[in-house]
Specification:
The protein has one domain. It is built from four helices and no strands. It is about 85% helix and about 0% strand.
């Protein structure tokens, strides 16, 4: 078994793990209660379920001998999309959670709420 086959197998394993993350994230959205728990499940599945398969496709396309001319182009696109997902998914989830917290439509008793103290200091 040469190095190309090992990298292709690694890419296929990453695609499979990403599919598992998507299924777990979908179950988390269905089963978890509360907005903040669901937004966590969506963000975790977006990162694990989108970034890992894209990296797997990038590995397969870059090292597969049958994709030589277009493989590097596809790998670059997948790598760029992975970077964007890793940067934008947590930022989007944070913006959604913060806006839901500030509009006070989501009622939840927090054990420790540091944001209340921060907002009180900011109003002074």
């Amino acid at each position: 078994m040469n190095m190309e086959n090992l990298v292709i197998i690694l890419g296929l394993i990453m695609i499979t793990i990403g599919a598992f993350f998507e299924v777990v994230g979908a179950l988390g959205v269905l089963r978890l209660k509360g907005f903040f728990n669901r937004i966590h499940a969506v963000t975790a599945s977006a990162i694990g379920g989108a970034a890992l398969p894209l990296l797997g496709v990038a590995l397969v396309s870059a090292f597969a001998p049958w994709m030589i001319p277009q493989g590097y182009y596809l790998a670059g696109i997948c790598f760029t999309a992975t970077i964007l997902i890793l940067l934008l998914a947590p930022a989007g989830a944070h913006a959604l959670a913060r806006s839901a917290y500030l509009c006070k439509n989501i009622r939840k008793k927090f054990i420790y709420d540091d944001l209340v103290e921060h907002l009180k200091e900011r109003r002074r």
